[in-house]
From TrEMBL:
Organism field: Variovorax paradoxus
Pfam families: HTH_18
Keywords: DNA-binding, Transcription, Transcription regulation
Name of the protein described by the UniProt record: AraC-like DNA-binding protein
UniProt domain HTH araC/xylS-type: residue ranges: 1-58
Domain of life according to the entry: Bacteria
Length: 76
């Protein structure tokens, strides 16, 4: 693994964490040393398959998996 591949992985993991937490995309881009938000968006999409805004929206949506449908044991 080259250093560039390693650091790209570190950056994308940190970006995913920060975006999922709800941080402003411009702040994430600048904090991770991207020269422009557009460069960050391209990098994020290349590595995750989705744009940061779609990723952020999906992170805010409730999970479709719930425990309410699990039947409880009935006591006699």
């Amino acid at each position: 693994m080259t250093p560039q591949v390693f650091w790209s992985g570190v950056r994308v993991e940190e970006a995913m964490r920060r975006v999922a937490e709800g941080s402003a995309l411009t702040d994430v881009a600048l904090d991770l040393c991207f020269s422009a938000p557009g460069n960050f968006s391209r990098f994020f999409k290349e590595h995750t398959g989705v744009s940061p805004s779609i990723f952020k929206r999906a992170a805010r949506e409730p999970s479709p998996v719930t425990v309410t449908g699990i039947p409880r044991e009935q006591s006699s």
